[in-house]
Amino acid sequence: MDRPLVITSDDDLLDDLLRVAAAAGAELDVAHVPAHARPYWTRAPMIVVGSDVADALAATGPPPRHRVMLVTRDPDDPDTWRKCVAVGAQAVLELPSAERRLADEFADVAEPAVRAGIVVCVVGGRGGAGASVLAASLALTSARRRLRTLLVDADPLGGGLDLLLGQEEAEGARWSDLVAREGRVSFTALQAALPAFAGLSLLSFHRGEAERIPAEAMRSVLDAGQRGFDLVVVDLPRVPDPAATEALGRAVTTLLVVTADVRGVLAAAQVLTELRGHTGEVRAVVRSGVLDDEVVTTSLGTPYAGGLPDQPRLAAALNRGDAPPIGRRTALGRFCGSFLDSLGGSPAGAEKTGVRR
């Protein structure tokens, strides 16, 4: 694979560029003089020209091309824009303030998106409704279909999806390792860092003090997730915080798990009011109770995603540390399969195209 080309004779500038590229997971080709750049000019996916060699490069008459950038560490240089035009650059990046954008540009060419993953959010209409179990079950079902799947625990007070899945001892990164991240995260690095089991990757919390997720960290994780995974399932808190709002804004649909009783419907209506300000489609998943499913969805004014009757063995399985039972003969398994079908996912199609929008 061809690498980005850097043209500069300024060793200090080159050191900065190599550091930024390393953070983005990119390797560079380097030309210290413009003449050495000729073999790479047309085939490099991206070219970064140091302002120190811009005039000399322009004198060689390089042919026009896309994705050429001029970098400078001197924002007061009055010749910067003249040099930009002379070399045919599309942008001027002033370091260090533009390092984040430069890292994103390097990452784009080093790791182009290989998937167009979709985001599905799950939230409980009240505490104990079973939203976390549903989120985990959807992710497991997706992984069994050979879809590349990321399960994100976004509820700091939820007790931990790793614990629910019996993976609390699994080695790998948790949110506390990622909360300081801003900008682009490599999806290959994210996948390698996270605990993985049963074909899915899991991002959960460490035990101990609950730590809120900054919106910037959630944005970075979901960006990586959508580039590298087919499906991203996010388990949300009932009251959206900034990180949850970031996820809701990306969701193709949000599943609201409602218990079919008066208190459950009233609580879900309050949650629904919060959700509608941040996301598009919200569908109700109705847990069996004293009210008919149609009464529940009519009261809430939401589309019906499906019903979930009680599974007598579910609580016992979870308390043993087992994953939720999602076989085809279980109500939970049938619901998850039907829901994924509604998104266009299938085991055969996953290997070729992933989940379709």
Automatic annotation (TrEMBL):
<dbReference type="InterPro" id="IPR027417">
    <property type="entry name" value="P-loop_NTPase"/>
</dbReference>
<dbReference type="InterPro" id="IPR022521">
    <property type="entry name" value="Rv3660c"/>
</dbReference>
<dbReference type="InterPro" id="IPR050625">
    <property type="entry name" value="ParA/MinD_ATPase"/>
</dbReference>
<protein>
    <submittedName>
        <fullName>Septum site-determining protein Ssd</fullName>
    </submittedName>
</protein>
<dbReference type="Pfam" id="PF06564">
    <property type="entry name" value="CBP_BcsQ"/>
</dbReference>
<dbReference type="InterPro" id="IPR059050">
    <property type="entry name" value="Rv3660c_N"/>
</dbReference>
<dbReference type="InterPro" id="IPR017746">
    <property type="entry name" value="Cellulose_synthase_operon_BcsQ"/>
</dbReference>
<feature type="domain" description="Rv3660c-like CheY-like N-terminal">
    <location>
        <begin position="7"/>
        <end position="114"/>
    </location>
</feature>
<dbReference type="Pfam" id="PF26563">
    <property type="entry name" value="Rv3660c_N"/>
</dbReference>
